[in-house]
């Protein structure tokens, strides 16, 4: 049941803090530990991450972990592209498939392809016993419980977190006490967002009638820009696209006028670079919403709305935290528009045909 929540999506967003804590305990301290320990020192010449939609965005987050923490090459593909592009797959490489349902047709076809080429296949999956689960050499369950809202929320967070734990397992640092406290901090910060969701509603009220939304992010926040845009278009039926912040002037800036909102996701890392982006959008009368570090007067005063977040202590996990703010924003915009949030038109929870 939905309990006190108006929609399953809202309930599932609120479940995230507890699920994050549970997953960390499972993989670091309890039964899941032996599965992760099997990755200790593991090195593949290349990882091929493949998924669709939101799970693909989680793959983009995980790629950054494998490359930056483990210095291992990781390619990420949209499953419907990978299966037809004759990918180069060599012995020793690993296919990593990310899926909530474990039944997505394109993702399963990619797994078949990897198997035909004789490479190992691993999964990050929610549904135990699903086709993907049954056909994988190794499974890393995300333990999200049933996700009913068609728009995926908690599955994304837990997929990305599982990928992070895999990365730390390969590095051999699962016993680092800082890891556990970092994940606890993530859970606390998501909890704070859940408690302050009304302030995100106020931002939604300012922008929900606008015609188009361009989400921008750099580096580790680029996948979050993509995911924020996907969530919004799925449930609010407005045009939304995610862009790498540096690409704004290479095309999408042509769209900017008073009917367009730029939602910029900015970490403390590259704050100054974003100031000029914001100025460019404002100069064209665009509406600027910035999701960024709290106490950043240099950028706050430029924005039409500022969503202040506390990035401290989350060097690796901040994308997962920021994403929850965008989940709430999409939810509140959709609610103001009166759409069917849990069952958006034209969408199915699991896409089992090509
Ligand atoms: C987005 C969404 C879809 C799924 C995609 C993959 O909110 O729900 O984009 O993420 O269809 O589904 P799974 O993860 O079941 O393979």
From TrEMBL:
Enzyme class of the recorded protein, top EC level: transferase
Molecular function terms, GO-annotated: carbohydrate derivative binding; glutamine-fructose-6-phosphate transaminase (isomerizing) activity
GO process terms (BP): fructose 6-phosphate metabolic process; protein N-linked glycosylation; UDP-N-acetylglucosamine metabolic process
GO CC annotation: cytosol
Repeat recorded as keyword: yes
Reaction catalyzed: D-fructose 6-phosphate + L-glutamine = D-glucosamine 6-phosphate + L-glutamate
Domain SIS residue range list: 35-177, 203-344
EC id: 2.6.1.16
Source domain of life: Bacteria
Keywords: Aminotransferase, Glutamine amidotransferase, Repeat, Transferase
Protein name as annotated: Glutamine--fructose-6-phosphate aminotransferase [isomerizing]
Organism encoding this protein: Peredibacter starrii
Upper classification of the organism: Bacteria, Pseudomonadati, Bdellovibrionota, Bacteriovoracia, Bacteriovoracales
Full protein: residues contained: 250 to 603 of 603
């Amino acid at each position: 049941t939905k309990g006190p929540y108006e929609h399953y999506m809202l309930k599932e967003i609120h479940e995230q803090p507890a699920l994050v804590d549970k997953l960390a305990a499972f993989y670091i301290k309890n039964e899941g530990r032996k599965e992760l320990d099997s990755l200790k020192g593991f090195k593949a010449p290349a990882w091929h991450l493949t998924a669709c939609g939101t799970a693909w965005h989680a793959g983009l987050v995980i790629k950054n972990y494998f490359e930056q923490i483990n210095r291992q090459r990781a390619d990420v593909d949209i499953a419907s592209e990978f299966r037809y592009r004759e990918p180069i797959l060599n012995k020793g490489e690993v296919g990593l498939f990310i899926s909530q349902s474990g039944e997505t047709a394109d993702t399963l076809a990619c797994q078949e392809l990897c198997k035909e080429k004789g490479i190992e296949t691993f999964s990050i999956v929610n549904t135990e016993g699903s086709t993907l689960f049954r056909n994988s050499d190794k499974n890393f369950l995300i333990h999200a419980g049933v996700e009913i809202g068609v728009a995926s929320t908690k599955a994304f967070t837990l997929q990305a977190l599982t990928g992070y734990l895999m990365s730390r397992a390969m590095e051999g640092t699962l016993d680092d006490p800082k890891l556990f406290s970092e994940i606890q901090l993530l859970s606390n910060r998501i909890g704070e967002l859940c408690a302050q969701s009304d302030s995100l509603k106020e931002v939604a009220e300012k922008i929900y009638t606008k015609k188009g939304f361009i989400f921008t992010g750099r580096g580790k926040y680029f996948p979050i820009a993509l995911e924020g845009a996907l969530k919004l278009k799925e449930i609010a039926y407005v045009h939304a696209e995610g862009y790498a912040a540096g690409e704004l002037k290479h095309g999408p800036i042509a769209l900017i006028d008073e009917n367009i909102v730029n939602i910029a996701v900015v970490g403390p890392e590259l704050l100054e670079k974003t100031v000029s982006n914001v100025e460019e959008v404002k100069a064209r009368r665009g509406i600027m919403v910035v999701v960024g570090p709290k106490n950043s007067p240099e950028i706050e005063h430029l924005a039409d709305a500022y969503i202040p977040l506390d990035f401290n202590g989350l060097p690796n996990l901040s994308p997962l935290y920021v994403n929850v703010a965008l989940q709430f924003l999409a939810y509140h915009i959709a609610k103001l528009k009166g759409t069917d949030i849990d069952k958006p038109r034209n969408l199915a929870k699991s896409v089992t045909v090509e």
